[in-house]
């Protein structure tokens, strides 16, 4: 079956920016341009397109005012303004998509969700399986037999993937009841009150009993106590919330399915783009591999038990960051080599593995390293002392 990838561009941009900004990593290039959102967004897209697919579309909101503002004037009111450090990066993110030859689209009065919903509907009718990527739970209403919604938690490596079966297991109701669940719970981020005092647990309870919001309203006199009063007093609010949250799946979308078919990126322009923004690690990944007599199999360590096994004395270490300014740039990975092989250790393992922390701090556990100073600074920021270093290859190079 053909596969289509649909991406909530606004959601991914915000995730890219705040994922690094939240920990103080607002990276810049030498010209002073903030680059953290561009870099993280490019990383996420590059990760996504490693899988097989036939069509791809990134949807964006076209502006602040949408059809929904005609139904509710204070829709999404109260959201904080976009930081200037983020705003200046958006044009570069869209330039990156153009260079990658990934179709991006926005349409006045409609939200990215509506574009995704309508394109997903068209794609399914054309025989595609659809994979949707966003951090917005509203898109769970698009789940179906041939549509999977992937909610991003951390980049593109930590996802919650929802099929109809997974949704049923998680919420204990059918995926077709999601909109009614949302209508009752409301959504503070969109300024939708729903039924105040009715949270997920109670909403699920009444949907299990009555099947739908309409049926709950029809039987509202049967519901006793405080819940019954809340439901009776907020019927219009719940119905409006459902209307506002409903993603359009058949509006007059001006972009055709054929425009989303997979295309080859413009490699030369991408190299220039990475060079301008000083994305050295992305540039290295893009360049053809240097032929070497020695072939090395690199293992990415995926669990704590395996990590413990490879922490041997006389290992060689290297700490890689997103860019050269390791005082501000986050850790990308730790490379480790010893008689068992060559390994990539994810940065999150440092905080989660006591064995790794002891390995790094033990002065009796002899290790060699490339750039002791960088490693020392990075680990110091995490509250870990680096000890037991017998040899620094960078220092020896001088």
Automatic annotation (TrEMBL):
InterPro entries: 5-3_exonucl_a-hlix_arch_N, 5-3_exonuclease, 5-3_exonuclease_C_sf, DNA_polI_exonuclease, DNA_polI_H3TH, FEN, HhH2, PIN-like_dom_sf
Gene3D superfamilies (UniProt xref): 5' to 3' exonuclease, C-terminal subdomain, 5'-nuclease, Ribonuclease H-like superfamily/Ribonuclease H
Keyword Nuclease set for record: yes
Protein's GO biological process: DNA replication, Okazaki fragment processing
GO molecular function: 5'-3' exonuclease activity; 5'-flap endonuclease activity; DNA binding
SMART domains: 53EXOc (SM00475), HhH2 (SM00279)
Alphabetical list of Pfam families matching this protein: 5_3_exonuc (PF01367), 5_3_exonuc_N (PF02739), DNA_polI_exo1 (PF22619)
SUPFAM superfamilies xref list: 5' to 3' exonuclease, C-terminal subdomain, PIN domain-like, Ribonuclease H-like
5'-3' exonuclease domain: residues covered: 2-263
Record keywords, A-Z: DNA-binding, Hydrolase, Nuclease
Role played: 5'-3' exonuclease acting preferentially on double-stranded DNA.
Protein name: 5'-3' exonuclease
